[in-house]
Specification:
The structure holds two protein chains of two kinds. Chain A is α/β, with parallel strands linked by helices. Chain A folds into two domains: 170 residues, 3-Layer(aba) Sandwich (Rossmann fold), CATH 3.40.50; 167 residues, 3-Layer(aba) Sandwich (Dimethylsulfoxide Reductase, domain 2). Chain A has 16 helices and 19 strands. The longest helix of chain A is centred in the first third of the chain and has 14 residues. Chain B has one domain: Barwin-like endoglucanases (Beta Barrel). Helices cover 26% and strands 36% of the residues of chain B. Chain B has four helices and six strands. In chain B, strands 1-5-2-4-3-6 form a six-stranded mixed β-barrel. The longest helix of chain B has 9 residues. Chain B is globular. The chains are: A alpha/beta, B alpha/beta.
């Protein structure tokens, strides 16, 4: 029997497109409409069939797997809880509660994407807006160090460059698109102005733009970028009705990191003396913004939080997961809806083979051979409902289109909370 | 003269599609196991399209097929994944963020 679901939310990336049509045949998704290739793959490649947990490489019952996990968490002196960005905010909330009880370190995938943005946000502040305002008002769009036509494929059509909005009625013709990047990309090829900078020079270029905005003159080109190009960009920024600077890993992963983002935030603050201007990070995972939100409202900090001393403490470079692993500071790990083995530098990832690890993620996502316990949970947005935060921090309800055959992350974390010993 | 390049890793559509098939799946590994180099650098290194090069950083080394791409000279691109992560150091400069964009890498023809 087939069933059609309209306006389903895709949680692959921070766009959280909520207009997807999903067709279900019995127990699997047979057709997906409107989604980008990334989102379509998430739905069509999903295996909802029942699968059992594994303990030490052997199939186990759920009770046995939960008992083995609780044993690992109880024996650990310095457990690390990592991931969170592809699960629901309800589960994230339980993960923070578990970290508090255990005296653990908790860190989301933000730590290897926009944590520098969070640090800049806490130091400078952030003038920002919703994607609805981008769609309805923005006549100048700057994409700095990001490539949405590859990583956030529908951003252009739903929210930005090509979208027709309330005050931008003719879509792309009513907007100017500027890309700043270190290499030509599919996004730069459709921009009205592409400023190619040298790797690691974002801070210098941003500082130079601030100087120009504030009426100073540049004596020479900035690391190979022509003064005329920067002046042209400043004219666009000061002359627009509503500008939005979207930015990505090009700022946060390059030399300067949080200082790059802080300089962009400061530039945007200063531009508001002349016009309306906002900044917005292009968030990757579907609910990575939710991880920042939940951790911030429960602990005061967005990620890299330790509960070891009984009160939450933030520790960039210490409680961030790459450092916890590379320094041998974690003696057990609970990995929630993430795969650090595929995304961390090898020196950090290999440490996961040396300590007991518990992996919780939808089946198919998680069968690392090194894991001590594998818990194949349901997938929020496909066979479980929950809340996720879009990249502009708007919470969106994820729907369920398939019958759930496995427990959710939240249900498993609740069992951990009831069973573990308070540190 | 030592040939030090700046490596940036990043998303591609095929890399994302490979992740849906599972991290470490053949699709994921194929999509993330090559390096892009500028035309001029390929010529300077004496490497033809599709030939294997050895990439060495302070963190480790990996051998990958090299392909010409529209990149500035001195820049390498590898899709984010296990191959790039062999080269990226776990040094996080006090903020938890490794140099996924900006790792210095030496390139040798094989």
């Amino acid at each position: 029997m087939s069933q059609v679901f309209e306006n389903v939310v895709c949680k692959f990336c921070g766009c959280l497109c909520d207009d997807i049509t999903v067709e279900v045949e019995d127990t699997h998704i047979s057709k997906v409409k409107k989604a980008c290739p990334n989102g379509r793959g998430m739905f069509l490649d999903y295996d909802s069939s029942y699968s059992k947990p594994f303990v030490d490489g052997k199939e186990a019952s759920w009770d046995e797997a939960i008992a083995a996990s609780v044993d690992i968490l109880n024996k650990a002196d310095s457990p690390l809880i990592y991931g969170l960005s592809s699960t629901s905010s309800e589960a994230q909330r339980k993960a923070v509660e578990l970290a508090d009880i255990l005296g653990a370190v908790i860190d989301s995938t933000s730590s290897v994407c926009h944590f520098p943005t969070s640090l800049a946000f806490q130091a400078i502040g952030e003038v920002t807006c919703t994607l609805g305002e981008v769609k309805d008002r923005a006549d100048l769009l700057i994409f700095w160090g990001c490539n949405p036509l590859v990583s956030h494929i529908r951003h252009f059509t739903r929210y930005s460059a090509n979208a027709k909005g309330r005050y931008i009625k003719n879509g792309r013709k009513g907007r100017t698109v500027v890309v700043v990047d270190v290499r030509p990309t599919p996004t730069s090829k459709v921009a009205d102005l592409f400023i190619q900078i040298k790797p690691g020079t974002d801070y210098e270029v941003l500082t130079s733009l601030r100087a120009l905005v504030n009426g100073k003159e540049l004596e020479k080109d900035v690391d190979g970028v022509a003064t005329e190009d920067l002046e042209k960009l400043v004219d666009l920024m000061k002359g627009c009705n509503y500008g939005v600077a979207s930015f990505g890993m090009g700022l946060t992963m390059s030399a300067g990191r949080q200082y790059n983002v802080g300089e962009l935030f400061t530039l945007v603050v200063e531009l508001n003396k002349f016009t309306r201007f906002s900044a917005m990070p292009m968030r990757g995972h579907g609910n990575v913004a939710g991880a920042d939100q939940v951790l911030s409202w429960l602990s005061g900090y967005p990620t890299a939080v330790s509960f070891a001393c009984g009160v939450p403490q933030i520790g960039p470079g210490e409680f961030t997961s790459v450092d916890m692993l590379a320094n041998g500071a974690a003696d057990a790990a609970l990995i929630l809806a993430s795969n650090p083995g595929a995304h961390f530098p090898y020196a950090a990832a290999k440490q996961l083979n040396k300590i007991p690890t518990i992996y919780m993620a939808p089946a198919g996502d998680c069968k690392p051979e090194s894991a001590t316990v594998v818990l194949p949970t349901a997938c929020y947005g496909i066979d479980a409902e929950g809340t996720a935060y879009r990249m502009d921090n708007v919470p969106i309800r994820l729907r369920s289109v398939l019958q759930k055959t496995r427990p959710t992350d939240e249900e498993i974390l609740l069992q951990f909370i009831k069973a573990v010993e308070k540190c | 003269m030592e040939d030090y390049f700046t490596l940036i890793s990043g998303r591609t559509k095929k890399q994302a599609a490979g992740l849906h098939k599972g991290p470490g799946s053949p699709e994921h590994l194929i999509a993330t196991s090559y390096v892009e180099i500028s035309d001029a650098d390929m010529t300077r290194l004496g490497v033809s399209d599709g030939e294997t090069v050895k990439l060495v950083s302070s963190a480790g080394f990996v051998e990958l097929k090299a392909f010409k791409a529209d990149l500035p000279d001195g820049l390498l691109f590898i899709p984010m994944g296990p191959a790039a992560n062999q080269l990226v150091s776990a040094e996080t400069f006090g903020v938890g963020m490794p140099s996924f964009k900006g790792q210095k890498v030496k390139v040798e023809p094989v």
